Amino acid sequence: MILFPSVDELLKRVDSRYSLIMLASKRAHEIDKYRADKWRAENADQSKDNYAAEALAQDHPLLLDHYYSTKSVGMALEEIEAGKVTIDTDHTEDLQD
Question: What are the annotated GO cellular component locations (predicted)?
Answer without folding.
Answer: DNA-directed RNA polymerase complex
